[in-house]
Every structure is written in structure tokens, then in C-alpha cells.
């Protein structure tokens, strides 16, 4: 997943940062002992920089952090119970958020929850959906670390 665990993975091969705060995201050493490693990971991931704290696996770091991400799914996703299945899958994973049809024939929404669960839902939105749907592609935007969930449930917006 991360080729060099001591360097911010959002750096391009030429060493130039690709993340939102370019002046901040340089080569970030993480070999020194870190106090509050989880906090550092949460802070850096807000800029698109995931680092691995010593003794902390990437899956543990990602799984404990709450994130929010917007999504839009393209293809045959309306009139095939896509919203209902999305709500059910989100609830099954313990996520919160919402889903709605758009006037452009897509389905959009927002997911919030632990990173590992959100990643699972993103894969589901890209590859599975409802039984009668046909997904061309899914886009995910505005991903950010959050301190608390903004919703208490996963809702279908009409």
C-alpha cells in the first residue's frame, strides 16, 4: 500500500507533493518515536498524507479514524432499488449518511464512519450495487477526517 512507510505517499515520483497543502507535505519522516501517533495520522490525512506511526499498522490507523466522503454513482442506477440497497449496505456496515437520486440519472450521497468500513462501502458502490443495477463508474470527492459523525442514521433522501 505505502512503498516507503517513512515518506508521505502523496509525493509524486519526482518528490513534489500532490496533496492539498503543498508547502506542508514534504518528505515527512516518521522513524522517530511519535507521541499521539493517531492524532498525527488524523491530522496529516486531512491533507491527503497518510503516514504509518512506528508499531502501528496502516489498517489499524485507517480503521480507527472517522472519515466523511461524498459519492456519485453513474450507470443504470435509478429505478433498480439502488438507493434501498445502498441504505441497507451502509446500515449493515454501521455507516451513517444519505443517498438520493439526481436529475442527471445518477445516485449521489455521503458516507461517514470508520475508514475501513467506508472503504468497504466504496468498493460496494463501485462494483456491486443493487442486483438489477449496472454501474459504469463511481466517483468519490471531498474526503476528510471528522471528529464526530454528522448523522445518526443512513437515510434515503427523496
Question: What is the fold's blueprint, element by element?
Answer:
Elements: H1 37-45, H2 58-64, E1 66-76, H3 82-92, E2 96-101, E3 107-114, H4 115-127, E4 134-145, E5 154-157
Parallel strand pairs: 2-5
Antiparallel strand pairs: 1-3, 1-4, 2-3
Number of beta-strand segments = 5
Mean pLDDT: 76
Tertiary shape: globular
CATH architecture of one domain: 2-Layer Sandwich
CATH class of one domain: Alpha Beta
Instruction: From the alpha carbons, calculate the radius of gyration and give it in angstroms.
Output: 17 Å
Oligomeric status of the shown chains? single chain
InterPro entries: Acylphosphatase, Acylphosphatase-like_dom, Acylphosphatase-like_dom_sf, Acylphosphatase_CS
Family: Belongs to the acylphosphatase family.
Keywords: Hydrolase, Membrane, Transmembrane, Transmembrane helix
Enzyme class: hydrolase
What does this protein look like?
The chain is an alpha+beta fold and 158 residues long. The protein has a domain at 78-156: Alpha-Beta Plaits (2-Layer Sandwich), CATH 3.30.70. The chain has helices at residues 37-45, 58-64, 82-92, 115-127, and strands at residues 66-76, 96-101, 107-114, 134-145, 154-157. A hairpin with a 5-residue loop joins strand 2 and strand 3. The radius of gyration is 17 Å and the shape is globular. Residues 1-37 and 46-61 have low confidence and may be disordered.
Amino acid at each position: 500500500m505505502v512503498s516507503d512507510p517513512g515518506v508521505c505517499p502523496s509525493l509524486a515520483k519526482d518528490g513534489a507533493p500532490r496533496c492539498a497543502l503543498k508547502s506542508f507535505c514534504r518528505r515527512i519522516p516518521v522513524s522517530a518515536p511519535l507521541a499521539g501517533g493517531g492524532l498525527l495520522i488524523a491530522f496529516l490525512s486531512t491533507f491527503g498524507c497518510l503516514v504509518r506511526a512506528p508499531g502501528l499498522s496502516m489498517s489499524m490507523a485507517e480503521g480507527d479514524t472517522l472519515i466523511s466522503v461524498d459519492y456519485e454513482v453513474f450507470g443504470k442506477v435509478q429505478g433498480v432499488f439502488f438507493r434501498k440497497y445502498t441504505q441497507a449496505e451502509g446500515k449493515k456496515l454501521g455507516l451513517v449518511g444519505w443517498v438520493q437520486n439526481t436529475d442527471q440519472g445518477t445516485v449521489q450521497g455521503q458516507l461517514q464512519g470508520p475508514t475501513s468500513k467506508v472503504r468497504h462501502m466504496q468498493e460496494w458502490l463501485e462494483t456491486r450495487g443493487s442486483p438489477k443495477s449496472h454501474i459504469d463508474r463511481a466517483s468519490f470527492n471531498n474526503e476528510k477526517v471528522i471528529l464526530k459523525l454528522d448523522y445518526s442514521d443512513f437515510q434515503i433522501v427523496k
